[in-house]
Amino acid sequence: MRKLYTILLFFITLSLTSCRIITDNMVSRNINCRTEKINNISIFFDSNSYYVNNHYSSIIESVACFLSKNQNVKVILNGYSDINGGSEYNIALGQRRANSVYEIMRILGVNDTQMEIISFGKEKFHKSSDTLENDLARNRRVDIIIQH
């Protein structure tokens, strides 16, 4: 049990550290905050990763800014993974991905009560007529679902 606790603590610390690095880069820039309605957004991840790539910074920043100015709007952060690995692992990975986006938006000023996290792991794998490689990449994501 102690080993499991240590591993969980390590991953939480790693997740928060990566969020801090990303948000430090975001906060240093001055952005224009959107006030009009925004659409649902997907944030994609590398395989077996819950690190949010910097090229999503402005997207997450605009969602966070919009939510900060519209306290009555809520979002659901749906975490997904590809089909590689076991169900438990992928549920946890989807959760960590959603937590990464959640922490970034929380640091940027979004109220905790405006966000909800759900992890589907690989249970809702979306398959298209494309190649398996593209299907795997499309399912490594967090969908930010805006609840207007």
UniProtKB/TrEMBL annotation:
Residue intervals of the OmpA-like domain: 34-148
Pfam name, any one: OmpA
Principal cellular location given in the protein's record: membrane
GO CC field: cell outer membrane
CDD domains: OmpA_C-like
Subcellular location: Cell outer membrane
Keywords recorded for this protein, A-Z: Cell outer membrane, Lipoprotein, Membrane
InterPro entries: Bact_OuterMem_StrucFunc, OMP_bac, OmpA-like, OmpA-like_sf
Name of the protein in question: Peptidoglycan-associated lipoprotein
